[in-house]
Model the fold of this input.
Amino acid sequence: MDTLFAFVISAVVLLFFMRRYLKDLKKSEARARAAAEKAKLRSDGPRAQHPHIDAEYCIGCAACTSVCPEGDVLAMLGGKAAIVNPFKCIGHALCADICPVGAIAMVMASPSVSADMPRLTPEYETSVPNLFIAGELGGLALIKNAVSQGRDSIDHIANRLASQRTSSPSPEVHDVFIVGAGPAGISASLRAIERKLNYITVDEGEIGGTVAKYPRQKLVLTSPVEFPMHGKFTKTELSKEDLMAFWSKVLERADFQYRPGEKVEDIRKGEDALFTITTTKGQYRARAVVLAMGRAGSPRKLGVKGEELPKVMYRLIEADHYINKHILVVGGGDSAVEAAMGLAHQVGNTVTLSYRQDSFSRIKERNSQRIAECIRKGKVTVLYNSQPVEFKARSVMLDVKGETREIPNDFVWIFAGGEAPNAFLKKIGVGFGSRDLTSEAGNEVKRAASKTGGSPVLAGR
Ligand SMILES: Cc1cc2nc3c(=O)[nH]c(=O)nc-3n(C[C@H](O)[C@H](O)[C@H](O)COP(=O)(O)OP(=O)(O)OC[C@H]3O[C@@H](n4cnc5c(N)ncnc54)[C@H](O)[C@@H]3O)c2cc1C
Done:
C-alpha cells in the first residue's frame, strides 16, 4: 500500500514538474521568436517616423493593428503589439490615435538612421540660424505634415523678423526665400502672403512637387489640415488632379510669387547675417530661407549599359500614352508596382516587372493585393531575383536567377529611389543627427564655421 502511495505521489510530482518544464519551454520559444522579430527590425528598421510601442502599457487589444491604411505595419506578437513591416509606415499615426491606453507614440528613426537626417529644432530650424527645413526633407513624410511645417516655419520667421526689424526692409532683400513648390513650399508661400512677408519661391521643376509626379488619377489619402489662405482642408481622399486643381485655385487667388524651372545651387550666409542664394538663373538675397525641397532628389540610376537611351525613363505620369508596347518596369516599391499596373491596364501592352528581391516586402497593403490580382490575371509578369544587364534599342537583357534572358522591349521605367539631397545640405553647412538644437544653436554654428574655414555658415540671427 505504502509503495503504491509513494508511486502515485512521485507520478504527481513528476507530472507537475513536466508541465512546468513544457510551459517554460513554450515561453522561451515565444521569447526567442520575439527576439528574432526584434533583431529583424533592427537590421531592417524604419527609415523615418514610426510608432514606438511601450510594451509595459500595451494591453494587447490589437486595435492598432487593424486601423493602418498601409496594412500590416503592426501585428500582435506574444500578446503585445509590435512593428513587423516598418518600411510600410508612412506616418499616418492612426495607431497612436486609436490606442486606448496611450501606449503608442510616433517617434523619429533610430539614431543610426537619423544620423543621416538634418538636425532640426522643434521650430524646424537647422544648425544654421534662420535656415529652416519644412516637409519631407526633414524626415517626416505625408502631405499634411508638409503643409503644417511649411505654414509653421513661416510663422516662426515672421515672428522673429517682427521682433528684430529696426529699419524698413530693402526691396532687394527678401524676408524669406522658399526653395521648392511641393506641399510644404506652397503652404509656406501662402502663409508668407498672409503674414505680409516679402518672399520669393523657386522650384527646379513644377508646382506640386512629388504630388505633380504621381501617376494620373492616383488616389491621394490625406488628413484634415489647416491650409493657409483657405482654412481647414477637410477632404481625406481625392485624386491627384483634384488636389492639384485645389492648389492652383488658391494660388491664383493669392498672386503667388513663383519662379519655375530654377534650381538652387548654393546658399551662403554673410557677415551681415543675410543669405545669398545662387540659382541656375541668378542670385537673390534673403533674411531667412525655407528649404522645402522634399527628399526625392535626383532619380537613382542603375549604371547599366544602354541606360542613356531615350526609351529609358524614371517617372511615369501618363500611362495611357503608351499602348501596344513591350514594357519593362524595374523596382519593387510602390512607385514601380503602381506604374506596372497602370501600364498593364492600357490596350495591348505586355508589362514585365523586374525586381531583385524574391518578394515585394515594402509595398502598401492595397498595392500588394492589386499586384497579386494582376499577376493572377496575367496582366503583369513579375521576374523576382532579376536585374537588367543591358538596354538595347528593341530589347532588354536581364539576369534572372543567374541566367541571361533577352525580352522584346519598347520602353523601360526604372524606380530605384532617389539620391536624397544630403550632399547639398552638407555643402551649405546644415548639421546632421537627431539632437535638439534649441539651446546650442550658437555653439553649433561657431563649430561649423571654424570647420569650414569661413564657409557658408556664419553666426548671427
Ligand atoms: C508614389 C507616392 C505616393 C504618395 N502618396 C501619398 C498619399 O496618398 N498621401 C500623402 O499624404 N502622402 C503621399 N506621399 C508622400 C507625399 O507626396 C510627400 O510626403 C510630400 O509630397 C512631401 O512634400 P514636400 O513639399 O516636402 O516635398 P516634395 O513634394 O517632394 O516637393 C519638393 C519640391 O522641391 C523642388 N526642389 C528640390 N530641390 C530643389 C532645388 N535645388 N532647387 C529648386 N527646387 C528644388 C522639387 O522640384 C519639388 O517640386 C506619396 C509619395 C509618393 C512618392
In short: The longest strand covers residues 282-291. Residues 135-137, 141-143, 146, 179-185, 202-205, 209-211, 214, 220-222, 263-264, 292-294, 296, 334-335 surround flavin-adenine dinucleotide (CB under 6 Å). The CA atoms of residues 48 and 109 lie 5 Å apart.
